[in-house]
Design brief:
The protein has about 425 residues and is an alpha+beta fold. It has 13 helices and 23 strands. The protein has 3 domains: about 90 residues, Rossmann fold; about 70 residues, ATP-grasp fold, A domain (Dna Ligase, domain 1, 2-Layer Sandwich); about 230 residues, D-amino Acid Aminotransferase, Chain A, domain 1 (2-Layer Sandwich). Strands 12, 15, 18, 19, 22 and 23 form a 6-stranded antiparallel β-sheet that branches. Strands 3-2-1-4-5 form a 5-stranded parallel β-sheet. The structure holds adenosine monophosphate (AMP) and glycine. Adenosine monophosphate binds next to strand 7, strand 8 and strand 17. The site of glycine (GLY) has 8 residues, from loops.
Length: about 425
């Protein structure tokens, strides 16, 4: 079969790699892709939001399955358009993608179906926000309703944070339309866990649960990023925690969406806070995480096509579904300065010296005159696997030392939380 992957990050490179080992696949395209996806797929010069161009391409090339990486094309209805054109595609419709694209929509569904999440107050303007926060005990969280590239949750620890948040939202208009509605949410205590359910609308299968490292610097310090590293399966995800996540969150959520007439297909990424084995929802995303995909996809034992196609064709329950009994750790190599200002165009050297046992997933890379150069904030993600998590972490760190580019930055403590838990 012929498969089209949409996106150009490390997540999409991980998708292309996983798809390339399927015996059923004879050709992969990636739109627009990067220097890493080009190793196993043909990169196509179509941007992720060019839905009509992508539909036309899928028709012309007789694509059997399209897999969407990022949220933007989902938000603008790529799944709806492909389906209207009789094309098979993995991902949620625009209406179902509102679980990520509108935090208020997600909260309302959770409230209606009794799914545990932080209590919240909805604010339509500055004075609502001032009333909602007056006298409220710190800490709490202010969230803008719409997509904000992972920067739309402001943890408020004191009066200065509150004043800054009000200034950013209403004076600087930093979030634009995304902040036309805002939530004030109670602070959830606990430890964060990312759980990934692949759904066909009715039934679902769970992938390994992962932990991300969102802050730029060691010790969870510095600004929020897209994610600086991850590991899976997370020791926090005990059988009891996973069963609670299934029964208290994923099943009622998918059943609720079905009742609403908005069946959810694709991957439901549940950002959970775990306390005393009980999960609460921090957020939903409607796509694979990046860099979580770089650890959970290499841990699939079954053919990934079975799972993606099972979701898209609404027969996931009948598909083979096995996970590897291995651990994976991925460390992101970023351009110094990310997520704020950073330079691009730095030559990346040493890639050929990296052990073939690890996967080097490309994110912000580009080919230029026979060289590979940096072209984004997150440049590469290096994933190592091992039956034991400490060894997987060690292997990833050994291999990244072989890769160099000017101003390379990475966290040195990916996976440390898990090691502490395992002691
Ligand atoms: P979000 O954009 O909703 O994923 O939030 C980004 C990050 O802010 C999360 O990964 C959490 O670390 C933190 N966060 C968001 N909401 C809450 C909450 N209600 N309680 C505690 N931390 C939160
Ligand atoms: N790594 C966090 C995300 O993909 O949203």
């Amino acid at each position: 079969m012929k498969v089209l992957v949409i996106g150009n990050g490390g997540r999409e490179h991980a998708l292309v790699e996983a798809i390339s080992v399927s015996p059923r696949v004879r050709k992969i395209y990636c739109a627009p892709g990067n220097a890493g996806t080009a190793q196993k797929a043909e990169n196509i010069n179509l941007q992720v939001y060019n839905v009509s161009g992508l539909v036309k391409f899928a028709h012309e090339q007789e694509i059997d399955l399209t897999v969407v990486g990022p949220e933007i094309p989902l938000m603008i209805g790529i799944v709806d358009e492909f389906q209207k054109n009789g094309l098979t595609i993995f991902g949620p419709t625009a209406a179902a993608a509102r679980l990520e694209t509108s935090k208020i929509f997600a909260k309302q569904i959770m409230q209606k179906y009794g799914i545990p999440t932080a209590n919240f107050v909805l604010c339509e303007n500055r004075s609502d926000l001032i009333v909602a926060t007056a006298g409220k005990a710190f800490p709490y969280v202010i969230k803008v309703d719409g997509l904000a590239a992972g920067k739309g949750a402001l943890v408020i620890l004191n009066a200065t944070d509150l004043a800054n948040a009000i200034h950013e939202i209403y004076d600087e208009d930093k979030f634009g339309e995304a902040a036309s509605q805002v939530l004030v949410e109670d602070f959830l205590e606990g430890e964060e866990l990312s759980v990934f359910a692949i759904s066909d609308g009715k039934n679902f299968q769970l992938l390994h649960a992962a932990q991300d490292h969102k802050r730029a610097f060691d010790g969870d310090k510095g600004p929020n990023t897209g994610g600086m590293g991850a590991y899976a399966p997370a020791p926090l995800a005990t059988p009891v925690v996973l069963e609670n996540a299934r029964q208290m969150i994923i099943k009622p959520m998918l059943d609720g969406m079905l009742k609403e007439g908005i069946p959810y297909t694709g991957v439901l990424y549940c950002g959970l806070m775990i306390k005393d084995d009980l999960p609460s929802v921090v957020e939903f995303n409607v796509r694979f995480g990046d860099p979580e995909a770089q650890v959970i996809l290499p841990l699939l034992e079954s053919d990934i096509i079975e799972i993606l196609e099972g979701s898209a064709r609404k027969n996931i329950a009948s598909r083979s579904f096995k996970l590897k009994y291995q651990n994976a750790c991925t460390v992101v190599l970023a351009s110094g300065g990310y997520p704020d200002h950073y330079e691009k165009g730095k030559e990346i050297t040493g890639l050929e010296r990296v052990s073939r046992e690890v996967c080097v997933f490309h994110a912000g890379t580009r080919q230029e005159a026979g060289k590979i150069v940096t072209s984004g904030g997150r440049v590469l993600a290096v994933t190592a696997m091992d039956p034991e998590l400490p060894a997987a972490i060690q292997k990833a760190y050994t291999e990244i030392e072989k890769i160099n580019f000017d101003n390379k930055h990475y966290r040195t403590d990916i996976g440390q939380k898990a090691l502490i838990r395992m002691k």
